[in-house]
Amino acid sequence: MAAAPRWRERLFALYFLSHIPITALIDLQPLLPAGIAPRALTDLLQQYATAFRDPMMLQPPEWFKAFIYCEAFLQLPFFPVAAYAFLKGGCRWIRTPAIIYSTHVATTLFAILAHILFHDFSKSEQAGPQMLRERLVLLSIYLPYLLIPLLLLFTMLCNPHYKHVEKRKRK
After folding, report:
1. CA dist 161 to 102, 164, 167, 170, Å?
2. Lower CB density within 10 Å: C or N end of the chain?
3. Distances in Å between the alpha carbon of 168 and those of 31, 95, 171?
4. pLDDT of 58-97, one tens digit each?
5. Distance (Å, rounded) from C-alpha 45 to C-alpha 17?
6. Cα–Cα dist 40/56, whole Å
7. CA 101, 104, 106 angle in degrees (round to 5)?
């Protein structure tokens, strides 16, 4: 029986552990009423959005808000569970939840990346990427959140360790 590659499990654990504070402190801010988030965090978000020309985080379109709600209520509760499973290592029970998570995230990221590449941001109140270089820089911020879930999906579907189904003995 093949073991799950530990380097991938460590990568996944780091991904999920790092995602908890990023989601809780930064990503969910667009859903909060003004003045609720601490000033230091709103300043950090403002600096990020200005530096990387990401207007979606300051004035998210409704479809992007829907993705943030999914992140809040579906993904955030999963992050510590997944981090635990991958830190512990060899947890086959994480396979189905990881497949669901990774397909969901990959689907949302395709829409976000297409928006970054093809949307006309000239009408946005906040400065968005105009030139190809600016679009590619913003794309590079979001891209790891597509690539790691795709690696997770590939691992869950193709690694023999996670595909193994135990046979039950009949009484």
Report:
1. 18, 6, 14, 24
2. C
3. 47, 19, 9
4. 999 999 999 999 999 999 999 999 999 999 998 999 999 9
5. 20
6. 19
7. 105
